[in-house]
C-alpha cells in the first residue's frame, strides 16, 4: 500500500460553490471502508460536467467541504470482506460520489462495492481514466435512450465532447450513419478523423443542414448541448424518430412553460438518459477496452492534468477550451 507513514493522502477539496479558487489540493486522512465498501487507489479521474455543476452550485444534495469526482479509475487497495482482491483493476462511478461522499479527485477513494466494475487492461492509466463515466453514458444513451439500430442515421448535437466521440464510436460499430456538430469550424477535421460521416458547424439551425442531407430527418438524435438547442434538434428528427436528452454542455437543462403540442414536432419522440455503474456491464467495458487496445476504437483526444492543476482543468472544462476528455492523474 503506497501511502505515507501518517496515513494521509493528497486530494482536491471543494470548499463551497463558486470559482475555481474554491478548489485546493490538501492532505487528508486516508479513508477507511465500511462493510460493503471498497478503498480504491486512484490512478486517474475523468472530469465531467456534473462536477462543474457541483462547483457552480447547481447540483442538489451536496455537502461541503467535498472531494469532487463522480468517477475514478485505479486498483483495489482494501476490501474488508475480501470480495475483490488487492491490485484488481477497477472503475468506480456515480451513486453519490463527489456529492454525498468524497469522490475521485484524490489518491484514494472509498466507494460502495456495487459501484465498482472490474476490468483488465495494459492501456495507460490516463487513457483508462477517460473511459468509465463517458462509456457508461454513451452506452446507455445508445441502447436505452435511443434504441439505436444497425443502418440507421444519428445526429449528435455536441460532437466534439468526450461523450460525443464515445457515441460516435459505438454508433459506427453498428454501421450507423453519423452526423455530428461543433460550433468551431476548425474542429470539423477532428470529427471527420473520428469517423463522423457528416461533420456540421452548429450555426443554430442544424435541422436545415440535416434535412439537406437526409430530407425526411434522422432516425435518432442525441442532445448533448441542452435546452437551448433541443427544439432545433427535435426538428432534425423524422416522424417516429427519437431524440434523447443526455447532456447539458450549455448548463441549461430546464424547459420552462413546456407545452408538448407546441414544443414537440408531430410524431417525434423525446426521451432522456442518466445512469450509474450498474448500467455499464463489465463485459461491455472489457470489450471496449480490448478494442481500444487493438486500435479499433477510440474515445477521442484525452487531455491530462496533474492533481495540482485541478483548477486549470476546471477552467478548461467550463470554457470549452479543449477537445475530448479531461483527466486528472493522481500520481
Automatic annotation (TrEMBL):
Gene3D superfamilies: Medium-chain alcohol dehydrogenases, catalytic domain. Coiled coil: none annotated. The keyword Transport does not apply. It comes from the Bacteria. SMART domains: PKS_ER. Keywords: NADP, Oxidoreductase. Residues 18-328 form the Enoyl reductase (ER) domain. Pfam families: ADH_N (PF08240), ADH_zinc_N_2 (PF13602). The keyword NADP applies. This is Zinc-binding dehydrogenase. It comes from Streptomyces aureus.
Amino acid at each position: 500500500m503506497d501511502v505515507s507513514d501518517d496515513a494521509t493522502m493528497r486530494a482536491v477539496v471543494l470548499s463551497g460553490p463558486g470559482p475555481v479558487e474554491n478548489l485546493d489540493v490538501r492532505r487528508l486522512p486516508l479513508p477507511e471502508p465500511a462493510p460493503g465498501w471498497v478503498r480504491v487507489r486512484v490512478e486517474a479521474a475523468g472530469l465531467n460536467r456534473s462536477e462543474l455543476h457541483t462547483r457552480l452550485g447547481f447540483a442538489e444534495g451536496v455537502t461541503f467541504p467535498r472531494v469532487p469526482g463522480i468517477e475514478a479509475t485505479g486498483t483495489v487497495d482494501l476490501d474488508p470482506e475480501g470480495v475483490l482482491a488487492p491490485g484488481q483493476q477497477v472503475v468506480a462511478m456515480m451513486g453519490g460520489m463527489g456529492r454525498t461522499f468524497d469522490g475521485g479527485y484524490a489518491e484514494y477513494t472509498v466507494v460502495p462495492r456495487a459501484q465498482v466494475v472490474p476490468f483488465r487492461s495494459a492501456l495507460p492509466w490516463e487513457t483508462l481514466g477517460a473511459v468509465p463515466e463517458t462509456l457508461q453514458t454513451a452506452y446507455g444513451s445508445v441502447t436505452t435512450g435511443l434504441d439505436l439500430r444497425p443502418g440507421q442515421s444519428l445526429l449528435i448535437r455536441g460532437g466534439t465532447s468526450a461523450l460525443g466521440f464515445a457515441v460516435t464510436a459505438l454508433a459506427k460499430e453498428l454501421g450507423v450513419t453519423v452526423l455530428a456538430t461543433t460550433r468551431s469550424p476548425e474542429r470539423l477535421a477532428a470529427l471527420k478523423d473520428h469517423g463522423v460521416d457528416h461533420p456540421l458547424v452548429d450555426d443554430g439551425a442544424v435541422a436545415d443542414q440535416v434535412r439537406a442531407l437526409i430530407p425526411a430527418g434522422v432516425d435518432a438524435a442525441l442532445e448533448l448541448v441542452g435546452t437551448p438547442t433541443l427544439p432545433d434538434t427535435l426538428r432534425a428528427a423524422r416522424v417516429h424518430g427519437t431524440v434523447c436528452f443526455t447532456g447539458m454542455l450549455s448548463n441549461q437543462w430546464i424547459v420552462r412553460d413546456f407545452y408538448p403540442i407546441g414544443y414537440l414536432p408531430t410524431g417525434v419522440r423525446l426521451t432522456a438518459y442518466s445512469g450509474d455503474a450498474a448500467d455499464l456491464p463489465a463485459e461491455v467495458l472489457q470489450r471496449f477496452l480490448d478494442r481500444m487496445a487493438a486500435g479499433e476504437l477510440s474515445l477521442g483526444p484525452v487531455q491530462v492534468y496533474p492533481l495540482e492543476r485541478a483548477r486549470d482543468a476546471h477552467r478548461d472544462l467550463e470554457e470549452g477550451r479543449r477537445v475530448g476528455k479531461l483527466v486528472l492523474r493522481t500520481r
